[in-house]
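Worked Example 4.2. Consider the chain below.
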Amino acid sequence: MRKLALAGLGVVVALAAPTAALAQTQQNTYSVTASVAPKKQGSKAKPVPAAVKFGVKVDEAHGLQPAAVKRYTIGFGGLKTNGKHFKTCKVSQMHGTDKTCDKKALVGTGTITNFVYTDNDPSGQNGGFLCEKTLHVWNAGHNRAVLFVGGDPAKCGGVGNLAPIPAKFVKHGSTGQALRFDVPRTVLHPIPGLTVAVREVTSSIKKQTVKVKGKKRGFFESVSKRHPVQVTFLTEAGQTARTSTEA
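Applying the procedure from the previous section yields the following structure tokens:
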């Protein structure tokens, strides 16, 4: 099925040219929104289970389509994860779908709006099209997660579910953690001559709790009064940018 879908996309790239020079001319711009609930303040001694909402928009400074972003580092200040206490679903359990996973391991959901364009036309005006996807965030254990991107093939040029993307939580500042992941080249360029650029992401990590030694612990916990969010983007062209907001 994937081969047929990619073959259909191949019609769009019949005249595509190498991208290296073009990617250098694109200058991405970013904006981020975030919120944390409840508003009750937590601390390291008394952490408070929390839900997190996150959004990012990607534009291009000159009106082109954005360059592909290969690495995201989403830092949440004052928030810690407790994945080791929750149900898990790992990459090895996903075989073209995430329906094989225990639903209790699903910690977040969202949507992704992409734009697919030919490499020789970063304006996207000749043959470019939108690609709408769903996002599932699965707990994969201590400081580990898996992102599963899927959705209706009719909303993305015939392409349905993508390969799962491993992610990890790394230290962020003195009191927080950052979700870091690399997008495979096979996702950024499903066939030679095509680039898939993210335009907007919305996601929500739900408030999920479990009893540990008689105490309620959250998947995400607030351990500070403030929750600054900083996102670092790394494009294929090697351009690094950071943007931040206060949740």
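Residues 2-246 form one domain. The chain has a mean pLDDT of 91. Compare this with Example 4.1 before moving on.
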